[in-house]
Amino acid sequence: MDVLRRRSLLTAGLVTGAALSGCTAEARPGTRSAAFDPDDWDSVRAQFPLDPDLVHLAAFVLAAHPKPVGDAIDRHRAGLDRDTAHYVQEQHQAEDEVRRAAAGYLNTEPANIALTDSTTMGLGLLYSGLKLRPGQEILTTEHDFYATTEALRLTSERTGATVRRIRLYDEPSAASEAEIVARLRAAIGPRTRVVAVTWVHSGTGVRLPIPAIGEAVAEANAGRPPADRALLCVDGVHGFGAVDTDIGDLRCDFLATGTHKWLFGPRGTGLLWGREWDALAALIPTFSGDAGGPGAAFTPGGYHSFEHRWAAREAFEFHGRIGRDRIAARTAEQAGQLKEGLAGIDGVRLVTPATPSLSAGIVCCELSTMDAFAATAALRQEHRIAASVTPYAQQYLRLGPSIVTTPEQIDRTIEAVRTLA
């Protein structure tokens, strides 16, 4: 029933959306003019205006807009340019429609979703808004991105709560669920009020077992009063759109994400999901009122890039037409193919776990012959492969298969890396 409900919510309004956005494509990326067939991966790829001569293994950094999203952005922009005040009034339900589409994707309620401009904004709203007391503790890890670490530093300065960091694994490729959960469980203390983690580590490709971590946090909360129980807070940006799971199954309290990475949503869009919002204080006045529940009340007001925010609905609908499960399987299949191929090359050290349950779409590796920046440049210049470098002190070559790549391109990439090793 949950699957049927989610599909029903995701496909609600698709006829209207397709009519408005002209959901069309051609069999080759970059042109997009033939009818879109969501069951055909070539047709899915053709929805994107990406350079067809490149292998796009860094598309997740900041996503290209598929045709339905691009068309929605253009439609809203034209309306705003033509008769701004009237068009804004006409779109008074647009944010609610985005929340409903996001809720259908997550299998949750629209009231649980606040709209943001990015993961960083969501994390800022979350960690700066948490009601913490001096003496309480924020438990986090050494594997998190700057946006989390800096938001927690600012929160500590504001509230007097302390921040403690732990390592969940020593060697990413050898990480195990048992080790990760055991280390985190042992680190939760009586003063721990926040457990701040990242679903998929962008520096290694390790995917944390968030449901098992949620269970460990729940065990630690047994007998604690509500004001003292540990809240599991997740940066979910590299799992969102790449992993097939309902938000409730993650067993977290809050999750922040951008929708402009693996979901291929409009650039400059994101969301913050909360199970319950009593632990959070609003920081920015909302223009959404509170009729839509706490999600609306915690949505920052002000004038945004409305044509992008409103077009997020089409991103969720596009994802829904293809199927969240199919997208996750396609991503995992190619990531597994890539990991297996890289692991067999002399001079290449695979950093990301081979275990599918401990990885998602990001695959990181290290070459003995050159650093990550040189490898990225060589792949682009010599092989027309777009890769990226992990944005951390320890830099790895980072590759991200997705719905815009093919198994044949993964084989091509493996052979290209072989020539560099």
Notes on the structure:
The chain is an alpha/beta fold. The protein folds into two domains: 97-317, Aspartate Aminotransferase, domain 2, CATH 3.40.640; 325-420, Alpha-Beta Complex (Aspartate Aminotransferase, domain 1), CATH 3.90.1150.10. The protein is built from 16 helices and 13 strands. It has helices at 2-11, 14-21, 41-45, 67-82, 84-90, 94-106, 119-129, 146-159, 177-187, 210-220, 294-297, 306-310, 312-322, 324-343, 372-383, 407-420; strands at residues 55-56, 113-116, 137-141, 162-166, 192-198, 231-235, 254-258, 270-274, 348-350, 363-367, 385-386, 388-389, 397-399. The strands form three sheets. A seven-stranded mixed beta sheet has the order 2-8-7-6-5-3-4, with helices on both faces. A four-stranded antiparallel beta sheet has the order 9-10-13-12. The chain has a two-stranded parallel sheet with strand order 1-11. Helix 10 links the parallel strand 5 and strand 6. The protein is globular. The termini are far apart. Residues 1-32 have low confidence and may be disordered.
Can you tell me the number of structural domains?
2
Overall pLDDT: 92
Total strands: 13
Q: What does the largest sheet look like?
A: 7 strands, mixed
Strand adjacency order, main sheet: 2-8-7-6-5-3-4
Describe the secondary-structure layout.
Layout lengths: L1 H10 L2 H8 L19 H5 L9 E2 L10 H16 L1 H7 L3 H13 L6 E4 L2 H11 L7 E5 L4 H14 L2 E5 L10 H11 L4 E7 L11 H11 L10 E5 L18 E5 L11 E5 L19 H4 L8 H5 L1 H11 L1 H20 L4 E3 L12 E5 L4 H12 L1 E2 L1 E2 L7 E3 L7 H14 L1
Helix pairs in contact: 1-6, 2-4, 4-5, 6-13, 7-8, 9-10, 14-16, 15-16
